Amino acid sequence: MEGVDHLAFERNKAQFDVDEMKIVWAGSREDFELSDRISRLVASDPVFRKDDRAALGRKELFKNTLRKAAHAWKRVIELRLSGEFSALEPEAYKLRAFVDQPAFTDLHWGMFVPAIQGQGTDEQQQKWLPLAYRMQIIGCYAQTELGHGSNVQGLETTATFDPKTDEFVIHSPTLTSSKWWPGGLGKVSTHAVVYARLIIDGQDYGVHGFIVQLRSLDDHLPLPGITIGDIGMKFGNAAYNTMDNGVLTFDHVRIPRNQMLMRVSQVTREGKYVHSNVPRQLVYGTMVYVRQKIVADASVALSRAVCIATRYSAVRRQFGSHNGGLETQVIDYKTQQSRLFPLLASAYAFRFVGEWLLWLYTDVTERLKAKDFSTLPEAHACTAGLKSLTTTATADGIEECRKLCGGHGYLCSSGLPELFAVYVPACTYEGDNIVLLLQVARHLVKTVSQLSTGNKPVGTTAYMARLEQLLQYHSDVKKAEDWLKPNVVLEAFEARAARMCVACAQNLSKFSNPEEGFQELAADLVEAAVAHCQLIVVSNVYALSLLHKHLGDFISTGCIDPKQGSLANEQLRNLYSQVRPNAVALVDAYNYTDHYLGSILGRYDGNVYPKLYEEAWKDPLNDSIVPDGFKEYIQPLLKQQLRNARL
Ligand SMILES: CCCCCCCC/C=C\CCCCCC(=O)SCCNC(=O)CCNC(=O)[C@H](O)C(C)(C)COP(=O)(O)OP(=O)(O)OC[C@H]1O[C@@H](n2cnc3c(N)ncnc32)[C@H](O)[C@@H]1OP(=O)(O)O
Ligand SMILES: Cc1cc2nc3c(=O)[nH]c(=O)nc-3n(C[C@H](O)[C@H](O)[C@H](O)COP(=O)(O)OP(=O)(O)OC[C@H]3O[C@@H](n4cnc5c(N)ncnc54)[C@H](O)[C@@H]3O)c2cc1C
Question: I need a surface site. Which of 249, 339, 538, 644 has the fewest CB within 10 A?
Answer without folding.
Answer: 644
